[in-house]
UniProtKB/TrEMBL annotation, chain A:
Predominant subcellular localization, coarse grouping: nucleus
Pfam families to which the protein is assigned, alphabetical: AUX_IAA
Entry GO CC: nucleus
Family annotation (InterPro entries): AUX/IAA_dom, AUX_IAA, PB1-like
Name listed for the protein in its UniProt record: Auxin-responsive protein
Organism: Ficus carica
Its biological purpose: Aux/IAA proteins are short-lived transcriptional factors that function as repressors of early auxin response genes at low auxin concentrations. Repression is thought to result from the interaction with auxin response factors (ARFs), proteins that bind to the auxin-responsive promoter element (AuxRE). Formation of heterodimers with ARF proteins may alter their ability to modulate early auxin response genes expression.
Classification via SUPFAM superfamilies: CAD & PB1 domains
Domain PB1: 100-201
Biased composition (Gly residues): 13-24
Top-level taxonomic group: Eukaryota
Location of the protein in the cell: Nucleus
Assembly and interaction partners: Homodimers and heterodimers.
From TrEMBL, chain B:
Domain F-box: 4-45
Subcellular locations according to the entry: Nucleus
Tree of life domain: Eukaryota
Any GO CC annotation of this UniProt entry: nucleus
Gene source species: Ficus carica
Protein name per its UniProtKB record: F-box domain-containing protein
CDD domains named in the record: F-box_AtTIR1-like
Residue runs in coiled coils: none
Length: 219, 573
């Protein structure tokens, strides 16, 4: 599924190091945060072993690292290596203040859902890029364009998109209504978004009232 | 002595539990040997290749509990290739065939396959306890078999194993009517856990005393679990991250107030230090605290936590606590018996945050200290002499100065005198690990004074064969000797080969020992297996060139001759 491109490292609470979808009974899929990189880390332990012998650490060592020294169990070495990266991430999160905002992301046609932490992104563009990468093998929702999702406010583009086979990001807000992503300022969006659904363009028609009106008017 | 019926002797023997004491009983006379062997239920085998399953059962037909150790200790540090050996399958297979009423299996540094676990789970209806330490070779599928089939399971304790996590539903394999769990430790698993299943399992296990979670278990679940299990004695948290203003955190605080029985705490693999105050009420009851996997706790947050732990007996911590932090430990944790300070940054060896000062402070403040593992930046002879004076009760003293061969920074001398003071003062010393710059002199002291020494670990030390000979001649109770990168060679190895029969094992790597000398040991001592391990240089290694140095040699006493499962790169002479 092209996990190689996702390599999501969101450093979220409860999913620091080992990550990976377990698949719960409720059908809720926790995102494979380290789908690729987790595989990487299990190879990494072998690599660490090799690294110790070949002294391939990234920093320049004044002394050669000897096999078997310092006498620390490989389990501990691997654990600390994983934690170093995740601790940095979670510290950053703590500094930026506030807990994560997890929302489910579904894309029509995909067999499973994903989850994203909206607090990891600063703008619609960021989110759009991330979603694009996440679902890149399905279609080009990256066609939100270089100007971001606010392109939807451009009517002609909106019509192209809605009528085409492109996907459109929508969200359910606190009131339970399904809205088109991009209308409100980013911070307000993060506050009110409960889940994301990436719909096929044609189905999103009902969400853009003005566009729909215009559609009706034209036909 | 023949006026006591066997049953009476046996009843008395029931009170003698440690294997050392049972071994002593068996040596008194043949009568006692017979009674003891027929009644021994817990069998400890320190080297799985020293004896076979058949002979073990022949001697101890009442066996119910088996403890087995496989790879040599230095395997922990990548010095032993992965497939060297230590397979548990033959033991399980033999015991299954012989219908042993196995209840408990404890393994250390062994290779455990899923097949072994499955066979284990199906073969012993009374099986209660599985403890795996530093093992590898299995996946969560094997755990699923244990969970599903061991109806009487009380204990599943996984410590620092390399487990392939298939992210299956192993936890769900505990049947709904399984209510017998007392101890569950899966902290070393890397994958996701079905949280709802975990909560249900805890809810139906009223006897659960030990629960150590892995990183995949969030704080929210921890809170729910604690509400259901306030009787816990030993808790390992998973991920400890939440918003301190959240309702979850408030609920956690309430739950923890009810957990008055917690005496041992660990985990905090991911942590938001601002949420640690929830644990302060628990801290005052703690006897054991392991924060060695919690690099996120440091500085003032760590100090605040430790100040509450006034009853602490065991502390495992990272060196980012610093000398100042250790001084705080010394002033608050007066009951401390065991301290382990692990290095937090292995890539940047120049920055270890503790020095001799921290150790001196601890020795001054904690008179009950008897076990130490201390990774540090530097050490001085003066400090070691002070420590020896303050704490003459050391049983285990393991010092690791991260920069090998480092001399006393104040006097630029080797650390012979410092370690000498330790062995002289600590008459009960059983285990010693040396580091820093050391000459033959330290070994002279060890041979002279360390009368109770059973295990010695040496690295980058000594000047000549005399060093090793001092130890072999002087330490009458020596059982395990492991040496890496030191100047000991053939003369040391060959002078008293009979000594090795009194020991469990000898490891020498990157020393000056030649192939010819190893062959001679093997020739003279048929009761030893002398293994040469040659991973890399298979082509360069010439079996006939007796002059060439041997990279790794491992010899051990055995009653069953050379093993038949040795891989290609292991050559038993």
């Amino acid at each position: 599924m092209g996990f190689e491109e996702t390599e999501l490292r969101l450093g979220l609470p409860g999913n620091g190091g080992g990550g990976g979808g377990g698949g719960s009974h409720e059908g809720e899929m926790v995102m494979r945060k380290r789908g690729f990189s987790e595989t990487e880390s299990s190879d990494e332990s072998a690599d660490n072993n090799v690294d110790l012998k070949l002294n391939l650490s990234s920093k320049d060592q004044p002394k050669a690292q000897v096999v078997g020294w310092p006498p620390v169990r490989s389990f501990r070495k691997n654990m600390m290596a994983v934690q170093k990266s995740s601790t940095d991430e979670s510290t950053e999160k703590a500094v930026s203040g506030g807990s994560a905002v997890f929302v489910k992301v579904s894309i029509d046609g995909a067999p499973y859902l994903r989850k994203v932490d909206l607090k990891m992104y600063k703008s619609y563009q960021d989110l759009s890029d991330a979603l694009g990468k996440m679902f890149s093998s399905f279609s080009t929702i990256g066609n939100c364009g270089s100007q971001g999702m606010k392109d939807f406010m451009n009517e002609s583009k909106l019509m192209d998109v809605l009528n085409g086979s492109d996907y459109v990001p929508t969200y359910e807000d606190k009131d339970g209504d399904w809205m088109l992503v991009g209308d409100v300022p980013w911070e307000m969006f993060v506050e009110s978004c409960k889940r994301l659904r990436i719909m096929k363009g044609k189905e999103a028609v009902g969400l853009a009232p003005r566009a729909m009106e215009k559609c009706k008017n034209r036909s | 002595m023949s006026y006591f019926p066997d049953e009476v002797i046996e009843h008395v023997f029931d009170y003698v539990t440690t294997h050392k004491d049972r071994n002593a009983l068996s040596l008194v006379c043949r009568w006692w040997y017979r009674i003891e062997r027929l009644s021994r239920q817990r069998v400890f085998i320190g080297n799985c290749y020293a004896i076979s399953p058949e002979r073990t059962l022949a001697r101890f037909p009442a066996l119910r509990s088996l403890t087995l150790k496989g790879k040599p200790h230095f395997a922990d540090f990548n010095l032993v290739p992965q497939d060297w050996g230590g397979f548990v399958f033959p033991w399980i297979e033999n015991f299954a065939r012989s219908r042993v009423a196995l209840e408990e299996l404890r393994l250390k540094r062994m290779i455990v396959s899923d097949e072994s676990l499955e066979l284990l789970s199906r073969s012993f209806p009374n099986f209660k306890s599985l403890v795996l330490v530093s093992c590898e070779g299995f996946t969560t599928d094997g755990l699923a078999a244990i969970a599903a089939n061991c109806r009487q399971l009380r204990e599943l304790d996984l410590q620092e194993n390399e487990i392939d996590d298939h992210r299956g539903q192993w936890l769900s394999c505990f049947p709904d009517n399984c209510t017998s769990l007392v101890s569950l430790n899966f902290a070393c698993l890397k994958g996701e856990i079905n949280l709802a299943t975990l909560e249900r399992l805890v809810a139906r296990s009223p006897n659960l005393k030990v629960l150590r979670l892995n990183r995949a278990v969030p704080l929210d679940t921890l809170q729910k679990i604690l509400m259901k299990a306030p009787q816990l004695v030993d808790l390992g948290t998973g991920s400890y991250l939440t918003d301190p203003h959240s309702e979850t955190y408030s609920k956690l605080k309430i739950a923890l107030l009810k957990c008055q029985s917690i005496r041992s705490l660990s985990g905090f693999l991911d942590v938001l230090p601002r949420c640690l105050p929830a644990f302060y009420p628990v801290c005052s009851n703690l006897t054991s605290l392991n924060l060695s996997y919690a690099p996120g706790i440091h500085g003032s947050e760590l100090i605040k936590l430790i100040r509450h732990c006034v009853k602490l007996q065991r502390l495992w911590i990272l060196d980012c606590i610093g000398d100042n932090g250790l001084a705080v430990v010394a002033s608050f944790c007066k009951e401390l018996q065991e301290l382990r300070v692990f290095p937090s940054d292995l890539n940047d060896i120049g920055h270890a945050a503790v020095t001799e000062e921290g150790l001196v402070a601890i020795s001054a403040g904690c008179p009950k200290l008897h076990s130490l593992l201390y990774f540090c930046q530097q050490m001085t002879n003066a400090a070691l002499i002070t420590v020896a004076k303050n704490c003459p009760n050391f049983i285990r003293f393991r010092l690791c100065i991260l920069d090998p061969k480092k001399l006393d920074p104040v006097t630029a001398k080797p650390l012979d005198e410092g370690f000498g003071a330790i062995v002289q003062a600590c008459k009960s010393l059983r285990r010693l690990s040396l580091s820093g710059g050391l000459t033959d002199q330290v070994f002279l002291y060890i041979g002279m004074y360390a009368e109770q020494l059973e295990m010695l670990s040496v690295a980058f030390a000594g000047e000549s064969d005399k060093g090793m000979l001092y130890v072999l001649n002087g330490c009458k109770k020596l059982r395990k000797l492991e040496i890496m990168d030191s100047a000991f060679g053939d003369v040391a190895l060959l002078t008293d080969v009979g000594k090795y029969e009194t020991m469990r094992s000898l490891w020498m790597s990157s020393c000056e020992v030649t192939l010819g000398a190893c062959k001679m040991v093997a020739r003279k001592m048929p009761s030893l297996n002398v293994e040469i391990i040659n991973e890399h240089d298979q082509t360069e290694f010439c079996p006939d060139d007796d002059e060439q140095k041997v990279e790794k040699m491992y010899l051990y006493r055995t009653m069953v001759g050379p093993r038949n499962d040795a891989p290609e790169f292991v050559w038993t002479l």
